[in-house]
């Protein structure tokens, strides 16, 4: 399995926007990209169909004919921690079927972008969390850092947890959450010095954060070596 695991410093910091943007950018470079959000919590009923916004965003970014259920194999109605959302529906998250679903979707292309849920360590079932999931997949990790107060601490703790699992931190993306955040340049400099991994881009607040618009702020030279070593 070739690809990347995309994680973040927290929930709601732009993992899906970055994953969609990478799908768009890498597809333009000729790769058959499979964006996968294995667990998605929070659905809306639209014209009689339950949909998850993140899954729909990733599905729209791919161009290899994936079905939404192949992009989001395990979806739940309630917008909360996945193990809680599953319990509310009388369902469970099982390790082996989840991994099998990811690998089945990944096999549809030649480069998988597997997006985690929430931060790096979110419980899924007894003795199994999203960090375990990333370790099972053994993919290089891309860290999305939500730029807001406290992001340096969150980023460094997450990077430490990633490396503690024996995983490679391939790079990180700075995504602007707080448009009024002071000392952005100083925060970016501190992150660059401490993370010891290349920055793949700094995404500002965008009025329409489409996959193409976000992709324009990601720098291809920074992650070309990662792609070459992963293919």
Structural summary, described in words:
This protein is α/β, with parallel strands linked by helices. It has a domain at 3-38 and 95-119 and 148-230: Rossmann fold, CATH 3.40.50.300. Helix content is 42%, strand content 23%. The chain contains ten helices and twelve strands. The strands form four sheets. It has a six-stranded parallel sheet, with helices on both faces. The N and C termini lie close together (9 Å). GO terms for molecular function: ATP binding; dethiobiotin synthase activity; magnesium ion binding; protein homodimerization activity.
Helix percent reads: 40-55%
**What is the number of strand segments?**
12
> Main beta sheet, described?
6 strands, parallel
| CATH superfamily descriptor of one domain | P-loop containing nucleotide triphosphate hydrolases
Tally of helical segments: 10
| Mean pLDDT over the full residue set | 95
Radius of gyration (CA) equals 17 Å
User: Architecture of one domain, according to CATH?
Assistant: 3-Layer(aba) Sandwich
Decide which structural class fits the backbone: alpha/beta
Terminal CA distance? 9 Å
GO molecular function, one term: magnesium ion binding
Pfam families: AAA_26
Catalytic activity: (7R,8S)-7,8-diammoniononanoate + CO2 + ATP = (4R,5S)-dethiobiotin + ADP + phosphate + 3 H(+)
Family: Belongs to the dethiobiotin synthetase family.
Structure, briefly:
Helix content is 42%, strand content 23%. It is α/β, with parallel strands linked by helices. It has a domain at 3-38 and 95-119 and 148-230: Rossmann fold, CATH 3.40.50.300.
